[in-house]
Structures are given as C-alpha cells and as structure tokens.
Design a protein that fits this description.
The protein has 14 helices and 20 strands. The chain is of the alpha/beta class. The protein folds into three domains: about 20-120, Alpha-Beta Plaits; about 165-465, Rossmann fold; about 470-560, Immunoglobulin-like. The strands form five sheets. A seven-stranded parallel sheet has the order 6-9-5-10-11-12-13, with helices on both faces. A hairpin with a 3-residue loop joins strand 7 (about 245) and strand 8 (about 250). The radius of gyration is 26 Å and the shape is globular.
C-alpha cells in the first residue's frame, strides 16, 4: 500500500512538472537594438506614411531610432524557437509572446535578446490569431446620404439629440465658421465597432471615404465591425462622426477616421495595455493627428496584475508611457478619465494619468459633476482630469438607433472631435498648445479642481485665444517670433529689424483688455529684446504688443 502511494505521488509530481514545462504564459521580450536595418531615420518614408512625415516636419519633431520597426529577423528567430508573437512595439523595441518556460530558455540566450519579463500566468488572448502588419481597409457600402446644412437658424447643422452636448462647449461656433474636421485624422482606439460599416448615421463617412482603414490588434485578421465583439466603439464614434442632421451630428463630422480595436471587451487583462500601445504606434504611422481612447486600466481579472493608485504617477504603467510617447510624436492624445468616481478606486486610470494626455471627465447637461466620473489628483499631485464635457445622458447611436448613454467614454470623444476642429483652425500650433488654449478658456481656468479639472471648455474662446479672431487692434499688427514660447521666467522677442529708444510693452488678456504695461530703453540698436518683467503673470495665453519709435509689433505668448 505504501509503495502504491509513493508511485502515485511520483506520477503526480511528474505530471505537474510536465504541465509546468508545457504551459503557455505571456512574456515581454525586449531587443538590444534594431539590428542592421535597411530603413534608417534619414529616410522615414520607409516606415512612416506621408501624412505622418508631414505632421512631424510641420511641428519640428525629429525622427529617431524609436521610429524604426522592430527587426523582423529577430522576430522570426523568436517565433522559430516556439513562441507565438502576439504584438510588437517599435517605440520600445520588444515583442509580446506566448511561450512555455522551455521556449523562453531557448531564446533568452540569443545575442540580440535583452530583458525578458513574465507578464502573468493567467492572461489569455481572446482567439488564436497571429499578429501581423496588415490592416483591413473598409469597403464603402450602404446608400450615400447627402449631408444637409440647416438654414433655418444661425447654425449650419441641426444637431438633433446632440445639441446640448455640443452647445455646452460652444462647439457650434467652430462648425459655423467652417471648421468641422476637414483634413484632420482621428484614430479611435476602442473595443470594437459593431455594425458601424452599415449604419445610416455613418453614411456620409463612407460616401466621402472618411473611414481610412481599420486594424484589429486584439484579434488580428478579424473585422472590427463584428457586432459580436463590442458596440462600444460604435457609440464612441457616433459622438464625433455622426452626420444625420435633425437626428444627431457629431463634433467632427468631416474628419477622417481610423478604427483600431485594442480591447477584448469580454475580459480585462494586462495584455490589452500592450495592444493599446501597438494601436497608438499604428495611429502614428498612418498620420493621425488625434487619438481618442475611451479606455482605462486600473484592475484586472487576475488580481496579481492590478495597478495601484501609486502607479497613477504618469511614469509607471506601460499604457501611460505609450500614450505620452504618442504625444511626443505630435499626436493629441485624448483619453477618458474613467468611471470610478463612486467606487472604492475613485481615481483616474491609466493612461489618463499621463502628463501629456488630455484627460476628460464628465458632467451632465447642466454642467454639474457626474457622480461616476473618476477624480484626481494623480499620485504625484497633478490636477486631473484636464477638462470635462457631457458624459451623463449623452446622445449616442447604436445599430438599434439613437439612444443615450453615460460615461467618460462619451465625454472624451466629444472633446476629441471638437479639438480636432480647433486644431484645423490653427494647424501651425502643437498638440500641447491646443490643450493649453482649451484649458485657459474653460470655465474653471482660474480655479481648477480635481473633479472637473479646468472645467467645461468654451471652443469659441479657445478659437479666439489662438489668434484666429482675437483683439483686432493687436492681431492686425504683423507678428514677431517669441522664444521660448511657452515661457517660464523670461522670453526673447525677435523683432527682425534693429530698433532703438524707448519701447512700450503691453500685455492683453483674452478679452482684449490691457492688464500689464512696461517700458524699456534701448540705448544701443538691437533686433532682439529680452523680456523678464512679465514672469508674475499666471499661466495662460496672452497677446503682446511692442510699440517702438518706428514700428509696432505683436505676438501671442504662453506663460507656463
């Protein structure tokens, strides 16, 4: 009897050991370099689209090694050692693989492999698809619906059910001035866009080829339009791209869109952060100007992988590092703050904690804080959310028709779409300058808090502060260059010609009121002026006017 028991235990241990050896887990495998690639940063057209290159050059963003793709020979050797490639990152130079411990041991010794990290043992991908570099282009389908402009009142659109959420942020002002998103590209990173390819509310997007393409990172090769995955992205898209006058018109009805699925809606696992970064890199490569991400990460199905509030410091979670990297590449990254305001967690999630991420909270139609909207500050004390918009009883479209939903999932794209329209009006400005213009003209700009941030935006005032229709007396004067701009303690005004004598310097606020004045006596002719007497100004946008004995100059300056 004792011998039988020993034999049984021995068999059990052997079975367990074999199971451990053959169990497939997730690993991050980083590479030491990009290898001997033909592509190099001197020729970005080999790995970035013409739109992406144009965005970088317009905003003087350099190309670097992070733009180069992961070395495909490295990837193939990892796959040849038994691993299944799930996703990859050129920005951070790694692949995520599903492999056994035995597989891991075989490629750890490869000379180009750097750090290897086990993500967690519980995570499983939704389906058995291999990650690839291809994408599914949307086929134009359905009957075309002509976009009709409303002529019965001052607004060019009859917003229908969306009137409150657009009028609350003065979005109709931009539309009435012709800024409806034309020429702007928005990447929507979400959980799925069920039936968006056949819904009449998106007819104009299809008819005008405004859906530029799709990619499914969570399930490569499968359609993002599969209604069995998720309708969340469909609803999110409707707040921006809907164009059914009298029923619903979104905040950017004439923008172009990329629909990118990174989320496995039926579960919550850490690998979705890596899918998200892959989607953001893809958005960068195709030339997106704006990313809307109505997603957030705090806790997961496997508690061992949970984040903590301490992780919400802008520099810890992988998805936040990726979001800030996207912003570094010139993309305006707009992300929902989260819906945990009434939960134990209560704080914003990742990547909304990123210092370069435009994080959006929720209010109701009257402008009051929505009880579920996640709050700040970040763990390191920064104010979040950045601003807030209507996320309670928000008009959205589903395959079943017009309905209403609640969540920062909807306040975020409302802001993303309208911010794209604002950027269209001032394309020479950077993503960070666009955010700053929206912040300083929002209704809590003088006293931001951790519920609504800088408050509810006013896009008519933001338009004005960007100089598209500000104080006529100042803006009709030829502008000069200011650097650094934004400034902290001082700035230099490049006058482009030598001046001498007594100069009068005037600072105007957004309403065109002069709030500060100073005098400088230049004894020696100079074409540059060092200004250090305006460091007491609160952070925000201002108009500078310089009166000299011979000429008058103006500039827009931003105080940090």
């Amino acid at each position: 009897m004792k011998l039988i028991l020993i034999l049984l235990l021995s068999i059990l241990f052997q079975t367990y050991a074999i199971a451990q050896e053959t169990a497939h887990d997730l690993f991050l495998v980083s590479f030491k370099d990009k290898g001997n690639l033909k592509a190099n940063v001197a020729d970005p057209s080999q790995f970035l689209s013409s739109r992406a290159i144009e965005r970088r050059r317009n905003h003087k963003i350099p190309f670097d090694q992070s733009d180069l793709p992961v070395n495909e020979q490295y990837v193939n050797k990892i796959a040849g050692n038994g691993a299944r490639i799930l996703c990859r990152s050129r920005w951070f130079n790694y692949v995520i693989v599903e492999a056994t411990q035995k597989d891991l041991a075989s490629f750890r010794s490869l000379p180009f492999v750097g750090r290897t990290t086990e993500l967690n043992k519980q995570v499983r991908t939704q389906d058995n698809f291999e990650a690839s570099n291809s994408f599914v282009r949307n086929q134009v389908a359905g009957s075309a619906r002509t976009t009709e402009l409303k002529t019965s009142n001052a607004n060019v659109y009859d917003y229908g059910a969306a009137a409150t959420q657009i009028n609350q942020i003065k979005g109709e002002f931009l539309h009435n001035h012709g800024f409806c998103g034309q020429g702007m590209t928005i990447a929507v990173i979400d959980a799925g866009f069920g039936d968006a390819d056949i819904m009449p509310v998106f007819d104009s997007l299809r008819a005008n080829n405004q859906i530029k393409g799709t990619y499914n990172f969570a399930q490569p090769g499968a359609s993002v339009y599969d209604a069995g995955t998720s309708l969340h992205g469909t609803e999110v898209l409707s707040t921006m791209g809907a164009n059914l006058p009298g029923n619903m018109v979104g905040t950017a009805p004439k923008a172009d869109y990329w629909l990118l699925r990174s989320e496995v809606a039926q579960s919550e696992s850490l690998i979705e952060e890596y899918y998200w970064v892959s989607a953001a890199e893809y958005a960068d490569s195709v030339g997106a100007d704006v990313i809307n991400s109505s997603l957030g990460y705090t806790t997961f199905d496997d508690p061992q992988t949970n984040h903590t509030y301490e992780d919400m410091d802008g520099n810890t979670t992988y998805v936040t590092l990726g979001a800030d990297k996207a912003a570094e590449k010139g993309i305006l990254v707009v992300n929902s703050a989260g819906n945990s305001g009434s939960d134990i967690w209560k704080y914003i999630g990742a990547p909304a904690d990123g210092d370069s991420v435009f994080s959006i909270g929720a209010v109701d139609g009257s402008g009051a804080y929505a009880f579920f909207s996640s709050v700040g500050p970040t763990f390191d004390g920064r104010i979040k959310p950045t601003v807030s918009a209507m996320g309670y009883f928000t008009a959205v479209y589903t395959p079943f028709g017009l309905t209403y939903g609640s969540g920062t999932s909807f306040s975020s794209p409302i802001i993303a779409g309208m911010s794209a329209c604002l950027w269209q009006a001032a394309p020479s400005l950077s993503n960070m300058q666009i955010i700053e213009a929206i912040k300083v003209t929002a209704d809590q700009a003088s006293a931001p808090d951790t519920l609504l941030g800088w408050g509810i935006p006013d896009y008519s005032s933001a338009y004005n502060v960007l100089g598209t229709s500000s104080n006529e007396e100042v803006l009709n004067i030829p502008e000069i260059k200011i650097y650094p701009n934004p400034y902290s303690q001082y700035f230099v005004a490049d006058l482009n010609c030598k001046v001498k004598g007594i100069l009068s310097l005037e600072i105007y606020d957004l309403a065109g009121r002069m709030i500060l004045k100073d005098r400088v006596n230049l004894a020696v002719p100079s074409d540059q002026l060092l200004v250090s007497n305006f460091n007491m100004l609160p952070g925000g946008f201002y108009l500078l006017k310089i009166n000299t004995p011979s000429k008058v100059f103006s500039a827009r300056v931003t105080k940090l």
